[in-house]
Amino acid sequence: MARPHPNGPKPAQITAGRIGLYAFLFVAALFFLLPLYTMIVTSLKTMDEIRLGHIFALPETLGLSAWVTAWSGACMGTVCGGIRIGFWNSVAITVPSVALSVFIGAVNGYALSLWRPRGASVLFGLLMAGGLIPYQIFLYPMVRAMANISLYNSLAGIILVHVIFGLPLVTLLFRNYFVSVPEELCKAARVDGAGFWRIFFEIMLPMAVPMIVVVSMLQFTGIWNDFLLGLVFAGRDNLPMTVQLNNIVNTTMGERTYNVNMAATILTAIVPLAIYFLSGRWFVRGITAGAVKG
Amino acid sequence: MHTKRKRNFSVTLALLPTWFAAVVIYIGTMFWSIRLSFTDSTLFPSSNYVGFAQYVKLFHSAKWLASLQNVLIFGVLYVSSCLVLGFLLAAALDRKIRFESAFRSIFLYPYAMSFVVTGLIWQWMLNPTLGIQASVRSLGWETFVLDWVVNRNMAIYALVLAGVWQGAGLVMVIALAGMRGIEAEQWKAARIDGIPVWRIYVSIILPQLGPALAAAGMLLAMGVIKTYDIVVAMTNGGPGNSTEVPAKFIMDNLFGRQNLGLATAGATMLVLGVILAVAPFRYAMYMRNNRAKGAA
């Protein structure tokens, strides 16, 4: 991070190379933006307009009726309550899952890096290995175990599952953060008589606010975007938005209402997109930290 | 002495839930599943051991074999395309261009979306009767064909296309971060020697980004083994078996077909696949670290 600025010669004169470079970037931008554009224009069209087969054409009139239907009237099977049911389910699942997993991750990272109790490296190794393993191998026994403690198909159950499977990533990120904290800080506090929890709440947690923000965003997007765990553990009454979206789009009877489908798709994507566009570099920091050190 | 014990007690207590999750849930349920794969369990778990019968059945299943082939094609094309496109985008953004942050946001935003959303968007774009194909034909190119999602020979490439659209941005940010960390001296020296810019990227920068790109590639490869949501949303495994993938095969047998033994055998193979994929990478890292230590 010595130089904040890019490499190469100063872009003073317009050369064929520069034109080619911008051409490449614009074509690439087109490729990445076209689906978003298509989604938005489709959601604003009427079905009559969609049937003409001009997927990239702008809508003739701006109508929000597909959005209203998607939010409050779209059907999954015979239930026509719209995607808002899934939206509120996802909020109810994601918020507590993020709060809990970030808290536990922070405690883990702090304990593993600054206290190094016996077995710390074993525990960390187990978590990292667990984070790599496909969920499919855990699913059936988890379902049985959750059923035994009456948490299968419940909100508390799906939250617990998200917290458990979030542990590897959150622990990794917080451990890497706290490893860079000077050990003297912790030692000095201990000499002054502060205990494990007091040091955590009064020194470490306030210091780790940037990391808390990064991890929360990462966990929020991850849990909001989850499909598999929600499908298996949440139960009919708590299905998250992604599962409901897939049901609305892929199990419709009769003619597919593409405008409603696209509106519902945008509504599902809007929360993580908002986090992404509002947080900018923080989000990038989170994914690169998770990727490179992992 | 007393306070020390008390302090250790707090640490132990704080880590207890995580120990429980790691040992009981990760290891415990994994061994439970592996054990089930050696039984003739169908709807309910049975303790009637049948040796490797489920594995034999698995590798005689056309669907499982098709899903292995599909995930291999998908994985190779998806990971390599993401790496190449991501590197090219990063190199282009590294050339002191205008609107850099706007471009970067555009290339990365799909990564924030769920696989379900990605699958549904591309299912719609590639819809043969109303999507891109229809649009291009209405412009006068009557024979234009883009029917990937409904064509059994092309459906897997439709998944690759959607996957690359979503994942290339990740490689781009990781590669760009690496490029920004390369020292200006190296650039100056190479420019003085008159080496063309593209050669600098290929021969000087690319090797230095090796570890970062390998990490990104590994992250994507792990995603490949877990591929499920995007297939369910986009093609649901069809047409025929052309986009079936192992993770979906397992889910279908676990919850749809009540074929517990076969599903857990498949899941065990998936775990083996992860170990085989990660082991060389970890080994290379370990050797690198050792060599670095030896040199120092």
Task: Identify the notable features of this structure and list them briefly.
heterodimer; A: 294 residues; mainly alpha; 14 helices; B: 296 residues; MetI-like fold
Q: What is the strand content of chain B?
A: under 5%
- Largest binding interface between chains: A-B, 97 and 107 residues
Morphology of chain A: globular
Q: How many helix segments of chain A?
A: 14
CATH homologous superfamily heading of chain B:
MetI-like
Distance between the termini of chain B: 40 Å
Q: Give the overall pLDDT of chain B as a whole number.
A: 87
Distance between the termini of chain A: 20 Å
CATH topology of chain B: MetI-like fold
As for the number of domains of chain B, it is 1
SSE class of chain B: mainly alpha
Low-confidence stretches of chain B: none
Oligomer: heterodimer
The global form of chain B is globular
CATH first level of chain B: Mainly Alpha
Tell me about this structure.
The complex is a heterodimer of chains A (about 290) and B (about 300). Chain A is mainly α. Chain A is about 70% helix and about 0% strand. The longest helix of chain A has about 30 residues. The model of chain A has no long low-confidence stretch (mean pLDDT about 85). Chain B is mainly alpha-helical. Chain B has a single domain, classed as MetI-like (MetI-like fold, Orthogonal Bundle). In chain B, about 75% of the residues lie in helices and about 0% in strands. Chain B contains 13 helices and no strands. The mean pLDDT of chain B is about 85.
